[in-house]
């Protein structure tokens, strides 16, 4: 048996990178019986057949996983958000951030299409960039052409498995093509009526770029918080963490409790007001979620 990583999954077949070679493999029948699905990003053991194909016989324990898109062991989420076409949406960006924070995945925010903004839009983009940087996030602002993208983003890819996330049409596939022109991933124009791009990515695949792997996926088709409990949400906002020990009540949810240090920090301008509003929105969304049985 040899150790490898699944780099592509399509129609029940898995491409496994092992010792510098890619082997087309199938999963053991036992996986189906146990309802275990091998995922792109999985560290696996394979047995090779005489014809050069292989069988996945074991899947190592995962550090994290997503169901939609189906991928495991993600180190970093590159969250792409455009300044225009589609218009910058901080609420949507914060949904992505909460989802990856909950999985303990490092986020990198990439704001695109800087070159086609108005002066007012660019000022707004810079203001948001400063806010997210003050929280502790890495933020890159790049142009639509992205000539400087490789130099800006390559240091963040080294020795990591990164997934690209973001609203359809913000330039995720364009970003990958700029990183490595050999990929030639299909891109689609923005739909003028809907203000969003058509989905062009059909399966999950890892690309070796620099010293790391980047996943081109169909994106997060589900942006709900099904896996997040009310008690967990507050930990998905890093700027809350330095204040919540000063709340009067241990386990304070920062909503209706008196003498809440987080709400005081919002009033004092130390926590961005729009971030706290989004926290309240997400809290109510999770609170009103129908129970699962």
Set down the secondary structure blueprint.
Layout lengths: L1 E9 L2 E6 L2 E7 L1 H5 L9 E6 L5 E6 L5 E2 L4 E2 L3 E7 L7 H13 L3 E7 L6 H17 L2 E4 L7 H9 L3 E6 L5 H8 L10 E2 L4 E2 L6 E6 L2 E5 L13 H4 L27 H7 L5 H15 L6
Parallel strand pairs: 3-5, 8-9, 8-11, 9-10, 11-15
Antiparallel strand pairs: 1-2, 1-4, 1-14, 2-3, 4-5, 6-7, 12-13, 14-15
Subcellular location: Cytoplasm
Pfam families: RsgA_GTPase, RsgA_N
Family: Belongs to the TRAFAC class YlqF/YawG GTPase family. RsgA subfamily.
Key descriptive features of the protein:
Ribonucleotide Reductase Protein R1, domain 1; alpha/beta; 3 domains; 8 helices; 27% helix; 293 residues
Q: From the 3D structure, determine the CATH topology of the largest domain.
A: Rossmann fold
For the secondary structure, the number of strands is 15
Average of per-residue pLDDT values: 86
Shape assignment? globular
CATH class bucket of the largest domain: Alpha Beta
Q: Please indicate the percent range of residues in DSSP E strands (runs of 2 or more).
A: 25-35%
Helix/strand order, N-terminal first = EEEHEEEEEHEHEHEHEEEEHHH
Protein described:
The protein has 293 residues and is of the alpha/beta class. Helix content is 27%, strand content 26%. It is built from eight helices and 15 strands. The strands form three sheets. Strands 1-2-3-5-4 form a five-stranded mixed barrel. Strands 6-7 form a two-stranded antiparallel ribbon. Strands 12-13 form a two-stranded antiparallel ribbon. A hairpin with a 2-residue loop joins strand 2 and strand 3. The longest helix is centred in the middle third of the chain and has 17 residues. It is globular. It starts with a strand and ends in a 6-residue tail after the last helix.
């Amino acid at each position: 048996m040899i150790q490898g990583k699944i780099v592509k999954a399509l129609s029940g077949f898995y491409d496994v990178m092992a010792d510098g070679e890619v082997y087309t493999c199938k999963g053991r029948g036992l996986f189906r019986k146990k309802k275990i699905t091998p995922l792109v990003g999985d560290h696996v053991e394979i047995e090779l057949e005489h014809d050069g194909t292989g069988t996945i016989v074991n899947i190592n324990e995962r550090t994290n996983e997503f169901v939609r898109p189906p991928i495991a062991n993600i180190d970093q989420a590159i969250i792409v958000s455009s300044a225009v076409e589609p218009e910058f949406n901080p609420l949507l960006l914060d949904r992505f951030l909460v989802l990856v924070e909950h999985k303990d995945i490092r986020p990198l925010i990439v704001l695109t299409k800087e070159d086609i903004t108005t002066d007012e839009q660019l000022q707004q983009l810079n203001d948001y960039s400063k806010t997210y940087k003050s929280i502790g996030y890495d933020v890159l602002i790049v142009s639509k052409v992205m000539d400087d993208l490789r130099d800006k983003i390559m240091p963040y890819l080294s020795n990591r498995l990164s997934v690209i996330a973001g609203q359809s049409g913000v330039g995720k596939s364009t970003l990958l093509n700029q990183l490595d022109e050999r990929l030639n991933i299909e891109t689609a124009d923005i739909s003028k009526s809907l203000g969003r791009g058509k989905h062009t990515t059909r399966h999950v695949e890892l690309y070796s770029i620099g010293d790391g792997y980047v996943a081109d996926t169909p994106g997060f088709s589900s942006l709900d918080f099904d896996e997040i409990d009310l008690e967990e949400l507050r930990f998905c906002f890093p700027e809350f963490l330095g204040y919540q020990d000063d709340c009067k009540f241990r386990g304070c949810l920062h909503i209706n409790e008196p003498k809440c240090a987080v709400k005081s920090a919002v009033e004092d301008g130390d926590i961005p007001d729009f971030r706290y509003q989004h926290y309240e929105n997400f809290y109510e969304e999770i609170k009103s979620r129908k129970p699962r049985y």
